[in-house]
Amino acid sequence: MKYGRLTRIPHAVLSDIRELLKLKVGDPEQEDSFSGAIEGLGFIVGSILAASGAVLFFGIAENGVMSAVTHAVKEFHEFWGPVMWGYLGIHAGATMVHLGLGHRSILSIFRW
Fold this sequence. Notes:
Elements: H1 4-21, H2 33-59, H3 68-100
């Protein structure tokens, strides 16, 4: 089994991060490993919130009483909520940066 692509992915993401730190924003039309990694992180955070929210939904009694485990999940969930809001804010800001740089193809997500 070949691992060529798997070893290239971290190098590509690091290369994209170096370019971003130099304030060079890549064209969204090209394959961009950094944006794919960011999308993946958003999916992971959303999945964590969905799973922990389901535990809270079923684990908290009507009167608000919860077990120690459910309380720990609640604390975990409360940590990841603001992380998701930050992710969404940065996501919107990145869209504005791309639009400011003339990358109009990013608007294609709104076409039907």
